[in-house]
Amino acid sequence: MTEPKIALVTGASRGIGLSISQMLVGIGYTVYGLSRNPQNCKFTHELFHLMACDLSNSKEIDQFIISFPEIKNISLLIHNAGLAYFAPVEELSSEKIREMVSLHITAPMLLTSAFTRSLKQNNGRIVFIGSVSGKEISPWGNVYASLKAGIHHYARELFAELRKFGVKVHLIIPDITKTDFYNHLNFEPDEDPKSYLLPDQIASVIKDLVLNDQGWVVPEIQISPELFKLKRKKQN
C-alpha cells in the first residue's frame, strides 16, 4: 500500500498558496491548508482541508500543532502566508510591525520546529516562498523587506542543516506576482502581461521540484517576469 502524501500549506485560501494547494491535490497530495479566513475560499476538493489559524498569533499556532492529525505523516511543508504594509518607518504602527514579524518570521520558525522530526522520518521537503524584496532595497518596504531577507537566510541555514538528514529545503523567490497582495498598497503590477507572474507559474516551479526527485536539490530559485513595470494606483 502506498504511503499517503501529506502536505501543509500556509496562506492556502488565495493567491500563490491556493494555486500551490490545487497543484498538489492534482498530483495526489492530501493538502491541509492554513488560513486566517478559510470561509472566503471557494475551492473545494476531497483532498483539500482548509483550517482556520491566525499565523500572527503564536497561541493559535501552538494549538494547531497540538491538534494537527497528520503530524507524523507530513512530508511537505510550504511556508507561503504573508502580508505587507509599506510606509515610511515612522508611520508604521506597532501593531502592523508585530503582525508582520509574527507572520513572516515567528510562524514559519514555530511550524518548522514542530514538524522537522516527522520530515526527517519521511524524507520530507520544506519550501519557503520568499520575495525579491528581500534581496533589494525596497522604498517604504523597510520592515517587510527586512523580514523577507531574514526568512531567506533561515531557509539557507536549514538547507545546510537538514540535508544531512535527507530533508530537502527550497527557497523560491518570486518577483512581481499578480495577486490581491497589492489590494491595500498604493502600487500594483502593470497591465502588460509580460510584467508580472501568475500564481500558477509559481506552483508549476514547485511541482517540478516535487516530482523531479533525481538525487540532487535546487536550494534557491528566483523567478522574474520578462519586463519590470509597476504603476501607482490612482488616488480617489
Notes on the protein architecture:
It is a single chain. By secondary structure, the protein is α/β, with parallel strands linked by helices. It has one domain (6-232): Rossmann fold. Helix content is 36%, strand content 19%. It contains five helices and nine strands. It has helices at 15-26, 58-67, 94-121, 142-162, 199-211; strands at 6-10, 30-35, 48-52, 74-79, 125-129, 168-174, 187-189, 220-223, 230-232. Strand 1 (6-10), helix 1 (15-26) and strand 2 form a beta-alpha-beta unit. It starts with 5 loop residues before the first strand and ends with a strand. The mean pLDDT is 91.
For this structure, the quaternary state is single chain
N→C terminal distance: 60 Å
Largest sheet: 7 strands, parallel
The CATH superfamily turns out to be NAD(P)-binding Rossmann-like Domain
What is the CATH fold-level name?
Rossmann fold
Our count of domains comes out at: 1
Pfam families: adh_short
Protein name: SDR family oxidoreductase
InterPro entries: NAD(P)-bd_dom_sf, SDR, SDR_fam
Organism: Leptospira kanakyensis
Topology (SSEs and partners):
Layout: E1 6-10, H1 15-26, E2 30-35, E3 48-52, H2 58-67, E4 74-79, H3 94-121, E5 125-129, H4 142-162, E6 168-174, E7 187-189, H5 199-211, E8 220-223, E9 230-232
Parallel strand pairs: 1-2, 1-4, 2-3, 4-5, 5-6, 6-8
Antiparallel strand pairs: 7-9
Helix pairs in contact: 1-5, 2-3, 3-4
Protein name: SDR family oxidoreductase
Organism: Leptospira kanakyensis
Pfam families: adh_short (PF00106)
